[in-house]
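User: Please predict the structure of the protein below. I'd like the answer in structure-token form so I can feed it into my own downstream comparison script.

Assistant: Understood. Taking the following sequence of 266 residues as input:
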Amino acid sequence: MALALAQMDFRRRLRAVVLGLGAVLLVPATIVALGEASVERAAGLIGAAVGVWLLLASPIYLWMIGSLRARHARAFEEEDAPAMRGVLRDYESLGGGRPEFHEQLRAAKAEVLLLEERWVEARDALATVDRSRLDRRLHAGVLNNLAWSTALAGDPARAIKLAELALAAARGSEARQRTTIRGTLGVAYALDARPEAAAAALEEVLQAGGSPRMQAIRAFYLGEARRALGQPEAAAAAYQRAIAAQRAGKWSVRAKRALERLPKGA
């Protein structure tokens, strides 16, 4: 049964769970009701079962949506593009034809391109997302991803402007999102040959904390900025910080290679 559920899309899986719960509650209640002499008592039993079913269906839906979000976050952190695609297929099965959902899904699919480091494709996909159809709370995240992909695609000056727009859109949002955008800004500074601004921004966001993957990226580019400033010892410390943060992963590998290229004794 578990394997059969796993092979269904998310909409069918949700429906199977909710209908299965209904059968567990309603079938026994109906059997008991059939043995009751009083119609009122039988109706009360079935009504109670329906009420419990409706009461439990909503939490089940929220729990399954929460599990999707957790899978999405885990796949992104682990740089697992196939797992991300699987999560997005489940999301897509829920969406129907709503234009806002279509745009949100397009933005989410671009995140897979980011994981695969297909920077130009990600930039072009995110640039065509119609943000006017999205909840305003999503605008800063889309702009941040656009800034990130633009910077890595070779246009850090443009990325700086986009990151500044993302920061403006994030006013009033939670501190973690603003920290993420400032990290993107710091990386764009580093790629735009502005190492002093990059070092200042990246030191700040590293102090604020974040996921291992984000901290590894920030520390790697801090190392790049320190190296550009002629500070090999500080660069080595930053690269080592990136390696310690992620242990395994693309940015840890990059930091190890960068560390090996530093002058001996740094």
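That's the full token string. The chain is about 80% helix and 0% strand.
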